[in-house]
Write a structure and sequence with these properties.
Elements (H helix, E strand, L loop, with lengths): L1 E7 L4 E7 L4 E5 L5 H10 L3 E6 L11 H8 L3 E4 L14 H5 L10 E3 L4 E4 L2 E7 L8 E5 L4 E5 L2 E2 L2 E2 L9 H12 L7 E4 L5 E2 H7 L7
Parallel strand pairs: 3-4, 4-5, 5-6, 10-13
Antiparallel strand pairs: 1-2, 2-3, 7-8, 8-9, 9-10, 11-12, 13-14
Helix pairs in contact: 1-2
Length: 210
């Protein structure tokens, strides 16, 4: 099992594609430039099974319908942010971009921390609010990765000054849900480069002294 990072759009939001040995894959956070993402997947002859969102801010949802329509695959999102998909005020696109970025309703809404089984993939949902109310991180133990969205970055953490954000809650999410994972776990961040749980425990200035 392997993964690829594909930065998309003006904010270079990272979409991630998790691929198994047979070429089936999951798409995380297709934020923009849908045709670019589709071409990359088709060039590798991968077969997507689903789209999963870490949260529903505009820069993480812009290409959802492009890829969903191309392969007729379901979209997963936390129940708390289901209406953000269709509301450009809630997802921030009108405020930050001056235009409405929306997507159709999700096919699968979840809450809690269930294990998702999608084809050959087993994904542990971890509720990690703080950046947004419905932010989740996806832990794929078989691949030793955590898809963290905008919760944890290399040397930083997600912003908490947006609607529904909470600095205290974000730090609690990181410490209680992410830093308890094996230190070698690779963190697939929503922006920038990857890191590991161990590296952030040792060097992230936002996490010291909490």
């Amino acid at each position: 099992m392997r993964w690829e990072r594909i930065p998309l759009g003006p904010l270079q939001t990272n979409a991630y594609v998790l691929v198994d040995e047979n070429g089936t894959c999951l798409i995380f956070d297709p934020g923009s430039e849908g045709e670019k993402l589709i071409q990359h997947i088709e060039a590798n002859s991968w077969t997507p099974l689903a789209v999963l969102l870490t949260h529903a801010h505009f820069d993480h949802i812009g290409a959802v319908d492009d890829v969903r329509n191309r392969w007729s695959i379901p979209l997963y999102v936390h129940k708390k942010e289901q209406h953000w998909l269709t509301d450009p005020m809630k997802n921030g696109s009108l405020l930050f971009m001056g235009e409405a970025i929306t997507t159709n309703d999700a096919d699968v809404l979840f809450e809690g921390e269930d294990m998702l089984t999608i084809g050959p993939f087993s994904i542990q949902v971890l509720e990690t609010p703080g950046h947004s109310p419905g932010s989740v991180s996806y832990y794929i133990e078989d691949a030793q990765v955590i898809v963290s969205g905008d919760v944890l970055f290399s040397g930083s953490i997600g912003r908490t000054d947006l609607p529904g954000g909470s600095y205290e809650q974000l730090l609690q999410s990181i410490h209680r849900k992410l830093l308890v994972l094996p230190e070698e776990t690779v963190v697939l961040c929503g922006h920038g480069f990857e890191t590991t749980i161990g590296a952030e425990m040792d060097t992230n200035p936002f996490l010291n002294g909490f």
